[in-house]
Amino acid sequence: MQQRPNFLVIVSDQQRWDSLGCNGNVFAQTPNLDAMAARGANFQLSFTPFPVCTPARASMWTGVHPNKHGVTYNRYGIDDVISYESKIDTTIFEIMQSAGYRTAYFGKWHLGERNTGRFDIWKGFNSHGGHWEDGRQSFQGGRYKPETQTQETIAFLESPQAREKPFIAVQSYYPPHNPFTAPTESYAPYRRKGVPFPGYYASVTALDGCVGEVRDALRRTGLSESTLVIYVSDHGETFNFAESAPHKWVCQDSSIRVPFLMDGPGVPEGVRPSDLVGLEDLMPTILSAAGITCPAYVDGANLFDLLDGTATAWRDAYYTQTERRMTRTLQRCIRTADLKLILSWDELHEFYDLTIDPEEELNLFDAPRADKQN
Known about the structure:
This protein is an alpha/beta fold. The protein has a single domain (6-314), classed as Alkaline Phosphatase, subunit A (3-Layer(aba) Sandwich), CATH 3.40.720.10. The chain has helices at residues 31-39, 53-62, 66-69, 81-84, 92-98, 145-157, 161-164, 198-220, 253-256, 282-289, 303-307, and strands spanning 6-12, 41-42, 45-47, 102-108, 121-125, 167-172, 227-233, 260-263, 276-278, 318-323, 330-335, 339-344, 350-353. The strands form three sheets. Strands 2-8-7-1-6-4-5 form a seven-stranded mixed β-sheet, with helices on both faces. The protein has a four-stranded antiparallel β-sheet with strand order 10-11-12-13, with no helix packed on it. A two-stranded parallel sheet has the order 3-9. The mean pLDDT is 90.
């Protein structure tokens, strides 16, 4: 019988799609993620269904849109968001446990304060706590928390637990989420060089180094050939510090478009698919690769159908929704390859032609149409 693959999902927090060198950023230093993209698949139009942590992560692990699971705001102080608040109370982890997989989680969860049994190995936290072990918001005097998480993941990969049966492990990092701090050496490519938000990109570079350490551990332990590695982020970063919608909470691409890389068994080398994909596609993709039947209620689709050319049809539009943080104003967005429509409860609607306006600066929603002129 063919050996079932392992899965390692690496999740960053608040990372823009265009923050990677492999996605065209001319100053970002991300050699490990660039190498991963070159070895596997780098999705060009990859999105979050809700550009806020808890709703996005609920979709990531249940495979459904936020309007189906019902979690539409960040949650704190709850033992288990999936059990208490989500209309879909099963995640991919329970399904894989039942199929004989070991489940392990390291880092930011943001779907509750505790492990309620879905993880065999749990070294996670809900959300806040900064980037430093001593709690200081600086790059002096403390150990960088992602480095600690990375060592925990490496210890798992080096342990007998990673070989006794197949595993799905998640390494979920808090950076490059604000406060945009990183170890001193990660600032070197950006300081005094005219790079905007150098702390953000220093965090991206520090994270890239952690990813490189994990990938080295996979190779060193002989797990590389049998492990599918996926790299995603829960949402993007707008660099907007307005209190009404800081950093995210909007439907602009800087907020909803995220990195999405795949490398490992069954993934063709160096492909850059331009199909519309989203975080809800993670669950059906992993379950398919593991040979596990995907629940019928799942909204996502199997990305291997795209990669191997067997998809008879694929979505031609992607749906995202959000609420502005202070006003709770609902926004709904339809994004195609070329166009974007944003409908808002405050009736400040937006329409963009992304072929000529990728920065979404020219709102055409109320523009006079030539074909309607007398």
